[in-house]
Amino acid sequence: MSESSPLKSLTRETKALIIVSEFEAQRMPRPQLRAVLNELVSDAEERLAVLELVQSDLRATGYHPQQIAGLLDELSEEKGAKESVNDTRLFRRPFALGLGESSRSHGVPPEPPSDTASLPRPASSPAAPAVQPPVRRSGTVRTPRVLLADDDKHIRMMLRVRLQKLGCTIVEANDGEAAWQLIRTGEVDLAVLDMKMPGLHGTELLARMLDQGITPPVVVCSAHDQHRAEAPVARYPKLRYLVKPVPAEAMEKAVRDMLELVKS
What we know:
This protein is an alpha/beta fold and 264 residues long. It has helices spanning 12-26, 30-40, 44-60, 65-79, 101-104, 153-164, 176-183, 202-212, 231-235, 248-263, and strands at 135-137, 140-142, 145-149, 169-173, 190-194, 218-222, 239-243.
């Protein structure tokens, strides 16, 4: 991971949110969870701090406490700690475990479930953002469906965590052509597009959407301001243009504002 990676600027709490989101989405085993943690955090001491912050959330989503304890031990040894972290801190409260495939996949027997309301939450977790109201379409009500189109998986990961907390359903594309295949279905309420994508550049994608008359609200993210004046961008009827790096609060506000256009 290069020094210019956007993950370098993430707060510890945001990294913790990403780890929980990835586990909930994939029910990953311990080696895969460790790989995600290594990718997010390069420093051994910081990795341990992030895992300690998020361990109760992992337990609440069905991760076996023995797996967490083992991973904490590994990270503690890396840090050079003199004592094991597999102590009574992990066993002060009962655990909420999934009893289906998610528990069996970790290779350890499940334990009885308990009330998840009693589980501790990370003390420094940020307040939850306002949740977007459902979108009504053709007599039905559903959560807003947002397309994230970017060839950088780390950026998509960060955006997914943020927007899921707004109550959005997320679909993803790693190039412009894949983004168009999702947009052309008419089931995308909002598209968050990177301008520089393989296959189909952002301006080319916008031009195709205009030509085909499929124009959901769009949030454009670009490292340069120069594309703002290009014809497809200037002509697009419902578009918010953001210049990278985009603060998380600015992205959330842009998404909320543009989804308001879906309801109007």
